[in-house]
Design brief:
The protein has 195 residues and is α/β, with parallel strands linked by helices. The chain has a single domain, classed as Alpha/Beta hydrolase fold, catalytic domain (Rossmann fold, 3-Layer(aba) Sandwich). It is built from seven helices and eight strands. The strands form two sheets. Strands 2-1-3-4-7-8 form a six-stranded parallel β-sheet, with helices on both faces. A two-stranded antiparallel ribbon has the order 5-6. Strand 3, helix 3 and strand 4 form a beta-alpha-beta unit. Helix 1 packs across helix 7. The chain is globular, with a radius of gyration of 16 Å. Pfam families: UPF0227.
Length: 195
């Protein structure tokens, strides 16, 4: 019997309540069987990248699962690269911020989370923490699946496609940073998780 730990990492200022996280979680729980159990882990990430990764790696290290699959959206996609290289596991990146320190440097300061009024303090030292987690290149493209939208208004899909060269890629015409049509692509996501 093999068990799978499925880790889902949301994006910057987002939460486990994001529509992609909820949709994926429901689908994964529906796939989970007694013979092939799947544990769903989708934590609220912290403002500090280092603390976020300490929390997630701690959970992975304590898991009894035989295999790990990490899915991440945007900043979560950046974290996904770090974890996939650390654990040698399968990874699915959704419009990932492949160079998160550069992307987020202009966002240092106080702001609020997307789906709540919780204050969110993004400190200058967090940029250094992101730099410390940067993966320069993926070691084994066959473990990765990139879903990138040409219509992403925040990040450059061409940069993503280049970063995941040799990996399985689904490049969407149009769509947007949040992948509004994610439900249409969920079957491919589940296929990758199960394969």
């Amino acid at each position: 019997m093999s068990s799978t730990l499925l880790v889902y990492l949301h994006g910057f200022r987002s939460s486990p309540r994001s529509s992609k996280a909820v949709m994926t979680g429901d689908a994964v729980r529906a796939l989970s069987t007694a013979d092939n159990p799947m544990e769903w882990y989708c934590p609220q990430l912290l403002a500090s990248p280092k603390q976020s990764m300490d929390m997630v790696t701690n959970h992975i290290d304590q898991s009894k699962a035989d295999r790990i699959v990490v899915i991440g959206s945007s900043l979560g996609g950046f974290y996904t690269n770090y974890l996939a290289e650390k654990y040698g596991c399968k990874a699915l990146a959704l419009n990932p911020a492949v160079y998160a320190a550069r992307e987020l440097a202009p966002h240092v300061g106080m702001m609020t989370a997307y789906d709540s009024d919780e204050p969110f303090d993004f400190r200058p030292e967090y940029i250094d923490e992101l730099k410390a987690l940067q993966i320069e290149g993926i070691s084994n493209p066959s473990r990765y699946f990139l879903i990138a939208a040409k219509g992403d208004e925040l990040l450059d899909w061409k940069e993503m496609a280049e970063f995941y060269q040799g990996a399985k890629q689904l490049i969407l015409e149009g769509s947007d940073h949040g992948i509004a049509d994610y439900a249409d692509h969920l079957p491919k996501v589940l296929e990758f998780i199960s394969s």
